[in-house]
Amino acid sequence: MQFIFTKLLWSTLMVTGLIGSIVGFVLPIIPGFPFLILMIYSLKKLSPTFHQWLSRTWLAEWLKKHQPMLAKWLVS
Predict the structure, then answer these.
(1) Alpha carbon 29 to its chain's center
(2) Residue range 19-65, pLDDT digits in tens
(3) Using 50, 70 and 90 to split pLDDT, how confident is the model at 76?
(4) Are 13 and 36 in contact (CB under 8 A)?
(5) Long-range contact list for 19-26, CB < 8 A, 24+ apart?
(6) Cβ atoms of 17 and 39 closer than 8 Å
(7) Where are the transmembrane segments (predicted)?
(8) What gap in Å lies between CA 62 and CA 4, rounded to an integer?
(9) What whole-number distance in Å separates Cα of residue 47 and Cα of residue 1?
């Protein structure tokens, strides 16, 4: 039961982050980057396979080079 609840919670946060980041990038009033971080972190917790793939992409390498603190939190 708890496993289903945690998956549902991370899925809800991921969808919220996705919608918030789209709205944030379209509207200049709302910042989209924090919602994007929420979405990536939720996907990391939701799917370990996604986390492994994410850590091997060029975006992760760029993040590690230019924003090491954020990369440490999101990718590692």
Answers:
(1) 21
(2) 998 998 888 888 888 888 888 888 888 888 877 887 788 878 887 88
(3) low
(4) no
(5) none
(6) yes
(7) 12-41
(8) 34
(9) 18
CA nearest to 59, candidates 34, 30, 42, 37: 37
| In contact, 14 and 43? CB cutoff 8 Å | yes
Please check whether residue 24 is in contact with residue 32, taking contact to mean a CB–CB distance below 8 angstroms: yes
Positive or negative CA dihedral for 23, 60, 49, 3? negative
Alpha carbon distance, N-terminus to C-terminus of the chain = 28
Domain range annotation of the chain: 2-74
